[in-house]
Design brief:
The chain has 10 helices and 7 strands. It is an alpha/beta fold. The chain has 2 domains: 221 residues, Spore Coat Polysaccharide Biosynthesis Protein SpsA, Chain A, CATH 3.90.550; 69 residues. A 7-stranded mixed sheet has the order 3-2-1-4-6-5-7, with helices on both faces. Helix 5 packs parallel to helix 8 and helix 9 runs antiparallel to helix 10.
């Protein structure tokens, strides 16, 4: 079973042509499939078009949100309701080409777990979309170590097992290949077609770049320090305490050598301020450690992932209560 998930937000005119093209491609492919449309609070009549599709075609499955929650939430809902062993998200504006789906499935059959689309000839506004996207992709590749040209392309193919259990928040759907890499997924990239938008209008602007940078900081933190947050907060605490000691020593030297009273320099205040920052950093690190242990132990989550075993009995579990 192939599950194709499509977030929809005010794309009434594109829905039917997109579904028709998907049906043509998938029927030609000859594999069972479902198309899951997630209506992300549309108010342009998209809901009625989707309901009509579901009434006419059993392959069309519709999820209606109560309000607009954003593309990441819609994509997560599609994953949650998908029943296929391969899940293919794509945009609902008909800028992705369904003809690329068989090529992506062929890549998975070569042994890959994720096939990521690359809009090499992207048909968007160069100043508002293409150039910021290019810069963001280079930054994400450099920081994450996952080398892809186009993290923002929604058209990707995932084996179900590499995204099972992954939870997405904020605007983090573009970082899903990074999450799968943490799970040991084998990732490849495939140039895909990209059409100019002919209906509706883009929902994103330049302000999205700032969100990408902030979300990237979170992803990097989760990658390096999620299991040992004290290393981050403790390091900040040590730096702050060292700075506090330095300011205090500086103030004392000025008093002894230059006869400058403490009240004439901001150094004592800075020493106190950095000392408090150091103490607070240590306390936040301890709190983060407690939260991390609660996260793993209360849900029975493992701190490692096993791809497979040979001649090994199923591991026993301990009662941690």
């Amino acid at each position: 079973m192939i599950s194709i998930t499509i977030p929809i937000y005010n794309e009434r005119e594109a829905i039917t042509p997109l579904f028709t093209k998907i049906r043509e491609v998938m029927d030609r492919l000859g594999k069972p499939y479902e198309v899951i449309f997630v209506n992300d609070g549309s108010h342009d009549g998209s809901a009625e078009v989707l309901d009509q599709l579901a009434a006419n075609y059993s392959q069309a499955k519709i999820i209606h949100f109560r309000r607009n929650f954003g593309q990441t939430a819609a994509m997560m809902a599609g994953f949650d309701y998908a029943s296929g062993e391969v899940i293919i998200p794509m945009d609902g504006d008909y800028q992705n080409d369904p003809e690329d789906i068989p090529r992506m499935l062929a890549k998975l059959e070569e042994g890959y777990d994720v096939c990521s689309g690359w809009r090499r000839d992207r048909q968007d506004n160069a100043l508002q979309r293409n150039i910021p996207s290019m810069m963001a992709n280079k930054l994400i590749s450099f920081i994450s170590g996952v080398r892809l040209h186009d993290f923002g392309c929604s058209l990707k193919a995932y084996r179900r097992d590499v995204i099972e259990g992954v939870r997405l928040y904020g605007e983090m759907h573009r970082f899903l290949p990074i999450y799968t890499k943490w799970h040991g997924a084998r990732i490849t990239e495939l140039p895909v077609n990209h059409f100019a938008r002919t209906t509706g209008h883009s929902k994103y602007g330049l302000e999205r770049v700032l969100k990408v940078v902030l979300d990237l900081m979170v992803v990097k933190f989760l990658d390096r320090h999620a299991q040992k947050p004290m290393y981050v907060f403790g390091a900040c605490g040590l730096i702050s305490l060292a700075a506090s000691f330095g300011f205090a020593l500086w103030a004392i030297l000025l008093l002894l050598l230059a006869h400058k009273p403490f009240i004439t320099t901001p150094l004592p205040l800075m020493a106190v301020f950095t000392f408090l920052m150091g103490v607070m950093s240590f306390l936040m690190g301890l709190l983060a450690e407690m939260i991390m242990r609660t996260f793993y132990e209360s849900q029975g989550k493992s701190i490692y992932l096993v791809r497979g075993t040979c001649n090994v009995a199923q591991r026993s579990t301990r009662n941690l209560s």
